[in-house]
Amino acid sequence: MRTSIFALAPLASAASAARFILHIPNTPLVNPSSLTSTTHATLQSSGAPLDAYITRSNSFNFNNVSVGSYLATIHSRDYAFEPLRIDVTLEEAIEGSGDKREKVAAWQTFLGNEWDNKGESRGEGGNGLVIEVQPRMPKEYYQERAGFSPLSFLKNPMILMGLFTLIMVFGMPYLMDNMDPETKAEFEEMQKKGVMGSGNTNTAQQIQNFDLASWMAGKTDTPPRNPSPAPQSQGRKRG
Amino acid sequence: MRVNAALALAACLAPAAAIFEDDAYHIDFHYALLGCPKHEATFFQKPYAASKASLLYTVSENGTIGAINPKDGALVWRSARGASGNGHLRAGEDQDTVISAVGNRIAAWSASDGRVVWETSIHGAVAEDLEILEQEDGISNNDAKDALVLVAHGSNGVKRLDGKTGRVKWTFEDTSGDTPFQVSSSPTTLYYVSLHSPLLGGGSKIRVTSLSPITGKKLDSYTLSSEGEVSTKENILFAGANTAAPILAWTDKAHKVLKVNIIGTKGVSSFNTPASESIESIVLHAPRKVNSLPHFLVEYQTATGHSAEVYHIDLNKNAISQAYKLPLLKGKGTFATSTTDANVYFTRITPDEVSVVASVSHGTLGKWAMNGSPSLAGAYPVHGVAEVVVKGNSASAIRSAALFSNGQWALIRNNEIAWTRPEFLSGTVSAVWAQLPEEESLAHQLEEEHHQDAISAYIHRVQRHLRDVEHLPAWLQNLPSRILGSVTGQSDSSTIEEIQHDTFGFHKLVISATEKGRLSALDVGSQGKIVWSIDLHQFAPGAAITSPSLKALRGFVEVKDPGLASPLFINSTTGSQISSQHAHNQWLPNLDQETLITYKLSDGELQGFLGTEPATQPVWTFTPPPGEKIIRYTARPAKDPVASIGKVLGDRRVLYKYLNPNLVLVTAVSETGRRASIYLVDSASGQLLHTASHYGVDVSRSIPSTFSENWFSYSLTLDSASRESRGYQLIVSELFESPLPDDRGPLGDSANSSTVLPNEEAAKPHVISQSFQIPEEISHMTVTQTRQGITSRELIVTLPSSNSIVGIPRGVIDPRRPVGRDATAQEQSEGLVKYAPIILFDPKWHLNHKYEVAGIKDVITSESGLESTSLVFAYGKDIFGTRVAPSFTFDVLGKGFNKVQMLLTVAALFVGVLFVAPLVRRKQINSLWTVPQ
User: Which residues form the signal peptide (chain A) (predicted)?
Assistant: First the structure.
C-alpha cells in the first residue's frame, strides 16, 4: 500500500526541503477510496501554492517543501475537510551539533483567526511525517424540492385562519345551544357589556379601511420620524 | 419604489437559491475536455488485467492525461493540466497503471480511477520519450513493469524507473552532446537513438546505442549514414518501439526515398515512394505489441489523396520487403493499427468509410460505409486508433476513435458515429453573447416599422403578421404534444423548434474563439449544442491566429488578433464572413449616439480616450504612486440596468446609491511594499473618487475584481508574513451618495450636474467597505445580469483549486451587515444579519454542483427573457453553462409545480360541485316552501 511513500525518498535531495504526507484515514463518515481522483491538497505560503493529488493509498505526498509556515487545504468534491497549519522548520537534532534537520509540525487552524491561534496538534516529527486529516462533513449540493404534505398544508396560516372561522361559524351555535342556561345568560350579559367586542370593533374597522395603495406609496398617518422636514420631502419626490 | 423594496426584501430574506436535484444536469451543461489527443499517446487499454471492457487513454496537446469510456464518450478520469504540451503516455500489457511523462514530471496513474500511484520529477531536464520495458531477457514481467525515460534538454540520458515505486534503477548518461531522439526496447536489448550533428553543419547522423536492460551499461554503438536526408528530428519517422523489430525510418526533403533500418542492425533498406503525385507527409504505423507480427504500414498523404504500403520484416534475414499496396483514394484519410494475439490489422478511416485489412494479405476483411454526423460535416480524420474483432476471415466489429480536422474527437462504431467530443473547445480564449436570428430579425423589423411613416409601417406590420400565420398550422399541430409534455413534465427542451419558440429567452448563442483560431457558436439553453463551428484561417490564409479576442455587435462578431492585419467580421448565426464594408454600415450609426471612453494601459499609466479606438491624445491619464504598478482595471459594464436608485432601509428611509456609469476600478500593486491598492476613478473626468490600500498582500497572486451597480468587490491572497491571519480575502465596497439616509449629498436635487466640470466640490461617494475571509483563492469574479436589474444580484466567483464556480448571494456580502452586534429588527427586515468574518462557500451555492469545471479562465453572464433568471457561461479549458435565479424563479413555474395534481384538484372540485348542487337546490326549494312560524 505505502510503497509510494518510499519511492519519493531519493527526490528529497535538497538540504532544506522537507517531505511529509497527509493521509485520509478510513472513518465511518467517509471511505477515502471512494474519493475522486481530482481530490487534492494545497499548501499555501506565498506565491503559487504547492499541489499534491490523492494517491492510491489515500494520501497526499509533499516533497521538497521549503522552510515556512503553510496553510494546508484539502479540496474534494464530496467532502469538506478541516484546514491545517503546517510549519516546516530547521532544527538541530542534538543541541550544539550543528546538524540541522527539518522538522514538520501540524496543527488545526481556524479561518479568519489570527495565524498564531493554533488548535489541536496534528502531529510533529521529522521528514516523512504522516499527518492525518479529518473530513468534516459531506457536501450537499442540491436543494430539496418541497413536496406536498398535508401537514405543511395545515401549517399555512391562511388555512388555519379559514379553519378557525369555519369552526366559529358552524361550531358556535352548537356550543351556545349546548350551554346550560345560567352560563348562557352570563355570556350574553358579557357580550352586552362589550368585553369581548369593544376592543375588536375599532381594530376590525382599521383593518377594513386599510389603504394598501397609500401604504405602498409611503403615506403614513404617523408624524415623520425624521425631525428635519426638508430631506424628507426631497426623498419622497424622488422615490 | 416600495414594490421593488418589498421584492428585494423577499429576495434577501429567502435563503439563496440553490440547484434542485431534478434541475441539475438539465438546465446546465459541462464539456469536461482534455484537449486534442496526441496520436502516439492514444490507445485502447484494459484498466486492469481481468477487466472486460477497455478504456480509451490519451494525453492531450495541453498535457492533460485522461481516460474516456469508449461506450458513450464520458470522461472517466483526467489529470490536471500538464506543465507542457510535450506529453507521453504508455501502458504496459496487463498492467493496472498508465505511465505518463509531461515536461519533467513522470507519474504512474491508476488506470481505472486516475489516482496517483507514484510520481517523480527530473531535475533540470525534460522527458523526451517514455517506453515500458515489456520483456526482460525474453520473459514478460507480470509484476509492475519498469519504465524507460529518455531525458533531454539538460542532462541527456536514459533512466530506468521501477514500475512499482518510480525509483530510478539506473541512469545512462550521454555526454556526447547528441540530440536524444528515441528510446526503444527489444526483448533483449535497449536502444537509445540520438542524432549526432557534425560541428561543421550539414546533415545529422543517426547514432544507435544499445544498452543492457539490467545495468544500463553501454553495450555497443553504431551510426547510420543519414547525412543526406536528416537534419532535424522532424525528418525521422519512427515506429514500433517495443515490438519484435523496432524500426527507424527517414526520408529526404522531397519525400522521394524512404530509408528503413531495423534497429539493432546496420543495414538500411531503401524504397522509392509512389511517384504519381508529390507526397506531403509520410507516417509510419506499426503494432505496439512485442509478440505481434513484424509488419508495418507506411501512409502517404498527398494534396488530394492518400495511399499506403505494407511492409514485412523477415526477422531471420533482417530484410524488409514490400508486401502489398493499398490504393490511392481521393480525399483525406488516416490509418490505424490494431492487434489481436499476434495478428496485425490495419484500419483505414476516411470521411465516408472504414475498412480493415490484415497485415498478411491485402484482402479487405470488412468495410463499413459511415453514416455522416452533422458535427463532422466537411471534416476529415487526422489520426486515429482502432480496435477490431475478427472472426474467421472477416472483421465482425470495429470501433475506432479518430480526431477529425475540425477538432472533434469521434468514436466510429462499425458504421455509426457513437459519440463526438468537441475537444477543440478546450483552450477557448474569448467568448461573447450573441443573439439568435429570430430575435434579431424581429428587433430589426420592429425598428424598420419604427422608422417608416404610419401607412407603410402598418402595411409592413400586416405583412409580417400574415407571414407569421404560415407557422400557425405547424404550431397548432405541435400544441397537443407540447401540452401533454408540459403536463407530464417530460418536455425535452433541446430541439431546434424549442429554440425558435423560446418564450423564456434561455436559448442564447455564445460565440467562442479558441487559441488555435477556431470560432464556434454554442446554444447555452440547449445543453451547449454547437450550432456552427468554423476555422478562422479559411478567411485569413497565412495568418497565424494565436489569441483572438471577440466583440459582439448586432448580428455579427468582430474578431481581432495580433496575427490578423484587419479584424474579421463573422455572422453570428451562420458563421459566414461579412465584408468589413457591410459591417461598418451596420454598426457605425449606433456609435454616434453614444460617446464611449476606451482605456489603455501604457507605460504603467491608465489612459482614457474618447471614442472606440485609442486616439492620439488621451483625455486623461491616471498614474499610480511611485513604486506601484497597475495590474488591471475593471469598468462598470456598459449594460447594467439598475431598478432602484436607492436602498430602502428598515425604517422606510432611503440610502441613495452612487450611480455613475463611468466608474473604473484600478488595481495597482507594490511588490516591495507587499501592498495592493484600489483606486476608483471617474472615467469621464479622470478624477480619483476613492482609494484603499491593503498591506501584507501576496502580490504575485491574481487580484480579481468586478463592478456592478453601485458596488464593487475584489479578492486578494494574504502574504505568508502576515501574522494576523492567513488565507484569502474578499472585499466588498458599496457606494452611496451620502452617509445619511434620505440625503442626496452635496449635489442635492439639482437637475444637472457634471463630473467633468464640477462647479463646486465634486460629489465623492460615501463608501462602505467590508472584508471577509474566504477559504479558497478566487481566480475570476463577475456578477449576474438580469433584464431589469430588479432581481438581487449574485457574485459569481471561480475557485480554481476546487474546480468550481460559486454564486455568492449579495445579501451575504453586504458591507452594511452590522459588526459586533446582532441586527436590530429594522436591519433584519432589510435582510441584514450580523457580520461574520468568514464566508464559507455553502455547497448549495456551487453552480457546478457535481461537475468539476477545470481551468476556467472567464465567466460571462447575460440576461434571459425572464427577469428572475440570468444565464452563465464559463470557458477556458472546460466549457460550462447554466442559468441562475438569485431570487428564485418567481416568474415561472418550476418543476415542483405539479400540474397533474392541479388538474386532479380541479376535477375533484367539479365532482364535488356536481354532488352538492342537488343538495343546495333541495334546500333552497324547501326554504321557499316552508311556512314561516
Answer: 1-17
User: Helices B454-469 and B437-451 sit at what angle, rounded to 10 degrees?
Assistant: 150
CB contact, 8 Å: B884 with chain A? Answer: no
- Is the domain of A45 the same as that of A129? yes
Q: What CATH number is given to the structural domain containing A78? A: 2.60.40
* Residue of A23, A53, A141 to mutate for B, most B C-beta atoms under 10 A: A141
- pLDDT, residue A205, reads 66
Q: Strand pairing partners for B798?
A: B780, B805
In whole angstroms, what is the distance from residue B709 CA to residue B796 CA?
A: 15
pLDDT digits (tens, 9 = 90+) for A190-234: 877 765 444 455 666 666 677 777 777 766 555 444 444 444 444
The domain tally of chain A equals 2
Instruction: Compute the nearest-CA separation of B827 from chain A (Å).
Output: 17
Contact B113, B69 (CB under 8 A): no
Prediction ipTM score:
0.85
Place of cell 527526490: A11
Give the rounded percent of residues in chain B with a pLDDT score beyond 90.
34
Q: Which of A49, A141, A238 sits opposite B19 (nearest CB)?
A: A141
Residue B910 within any structural domain of the chain: yes
Last residue of a domain, one of A91, A109, A138: A138
Residue B560 inside a domain? The answer is: no
Domain region containing A191 = 148-201
Which residues have CB under 8 Å from B488's CB, separation 6+? B900
Residue A239 lies in a domain: no
pLDDT tens track for A167-199 = 988 888 888 788 778 888 887 888 777 654 444
What are the cell numbers at A169?
361559524
- Give domain status of residue B930, yes or no: yes
Specify whether A8 is located in the same domain as A41.
Answer: yes
- Residue B34 confidence (pLDDT): 92
| Count of structural domains within chain B | 1
* Nearest-10 Cα torsion for A231, A233, A239, B5: 70
Return the bridge partners of B783, or none: B795
Decide if B19 and A111 are in contact by the 8 Å CB cutoff: no
B545-593 pLDDT per residue, tens: 888 999 888 778 889 888 888 888 888 888 888 887 777 766 554 444 4
Same domain for A155 and A37, yes or no, is: no
Q: Is B122 on the interface with A (CB under 8 A)?
A: no
B346 touching A, CB under 8 A? no
Q: Residue B911's domain spans which residues? A: 899-933
A132 shares a domain with A17: yes
Query: A37 and A111: one domain?
Result: yes
Domain co-membership, A37 together with A82: yes
Q: Range with the lowest mean pLDDT among B61-70, B346-355, B438-447, B769-778? A: B438-447
